[in-house]
Amino acid sequence: MQQNIVEISLTYGGLALGVALVAVMAWIERRPRKTLEPSLVPTTPLMFLGAFICLVAVVHIVNSFGIHTGKRWDM
User: Fold this and answer.
1) Range of the domain at 56
2) Which of 35, 29, 71, 32 is nearest to 48 (CA)?
3) pTM, entire model
């Protein structure tokens, strides 16, 4: 039981990290520009990375509650 608590805590932490990454990158993209120099932070790939982390975390949470996702190979 202790392993499940740690596993779910890490999954929720990953979900929070992914949401925070998407939110920060969206905030950086929407700031008004003062100069025409390109940003040193590649916001779009990092935003997609955050969304991917969120997707994997949500699928893991759903699977841990017993709902089967994905293709079944035992048929």
Assistant:
1) 40-66
2) 29
3) 0.82
